[in-house]
Specification:
Layout: E1 6-12, E2 21-25, E3 28-34, E4 40-44, E5 58-60, E6 63-65, E7 72-73, E8 79-81, E9 99-102, E10 105-110, H1 125-128, E11 133-141, H2 145-153, H3 158-161, H4 169-173, E12 177-180, E13 184-194, H5 198-204, E14 210-219, E15 223-232, E16 246-258, E17 261-270, H6 277-307, H7 320-340
Antiparallel strand pairs: 1-10, 2-3, 3-4, 5-6, 6-7, 7-8, 9-10, 11-17, 12-13, 13-14, 14-15, 15-16, 16-17
Helix pairs in contact: 2-7
Bound molecules: FE2/S2 (inorganic) cluster and fe (ii) ion (FE2).
Length: about 350
Amino acid sequence: MFIRDSWYAVAWDFEIKHAPFARTVCGEPIVFYRQMNGGLSAFEDCCPHRLLPLSMGCLQGDHLICKYHGLQFDERGQCVWVPGQEGVRKDMAIRLYPVAEKHRFVWVWIGDPSLADEGKIPDLRWCSDPNWVFEGSTYPVKCNYLLLIDNLMDLSHETYVHPSSIGQHEIAEAPIKATADEDSVTVTRWMFNLDPPPFWSANLRSQEKCDRWQICRFSLPANVMIDVGVAPTGTGAPEGDRSKGVTGIVVNLMTPETETSTWYHWGMSRNFQTDDHGLTFRIRDGQAAVFAEDTQILEAQQRNIICHSDRHLHNLKIDAGGVYARRIIERQLERQESRAYPIDTTR
Ligand code: FES
Ligand SMILES: [Fe+2]
């Protein structure tokens, strides 16, 4: 079960070219391509004739040609040519998905197409604001998307999973404050007067004592933005003045593929040293190494969850953010279920 009537990030904008691009989102195989005029098409990845994935085909202009017997579909999913016969039957159309491009990503709407509203695409202004620099990548991770949410809403794991880059023992020791509303969760952690870990001392260009913050925000369907940074101790960051520090927004968009696999789109946006392109890619490579460490943990965890299906997860204080996020997701899924099977009150 996945949350429907939502936009999911499919790929980075540069990844969808004038060629079929296959991606399964929430269990639905979809083929994407960029039209000659730069617009986007998205259809179910299944030819209505003999059900071959259309992503195996090719483009002729803006028409998608099936690899098996050559049926042609226009950019609206309408079949416009069938080999060996005159005319085209109406039921030869393929299902169209609402698709949009915003904040450096291509998004697809999973659910009722009549509800698709581009205004509901998550607010990722740091990814497209000219005053910020954003770069990242995508990892296919063989785990359920909820394990990624747990991981990102509990950064105490940094101490043990990422000891050589961003981890330090103060993280596991610092108390967190977790709050939730109807559809979002915030976990806040402040650490005071500590030595900056290697990643942050390099960006702060100083090894003096600092205050460090991590503010994780979950929002539906499966997005986690983490406001992170450090500032020299005593310069007012806890009170709201970060001008002497460095701030980044770690963007995490989890797109479920199946129950046990996820397209994990990640990146970091920053508003310091924005004209240093080398730094942009050093940060991206550093993050890639950090998230590869997470991926290893999460895939091993998923394998064990499958192998011990009779066991359940235990929740500790550190898990508060993930627990709240899971509750919000469960509530949304229950609402979704009740909409799909409305109770007949006339009987
Ligand atoms: S399966 Fe696509 S044209 Fe036959
Ligand atoms: Fe991590």
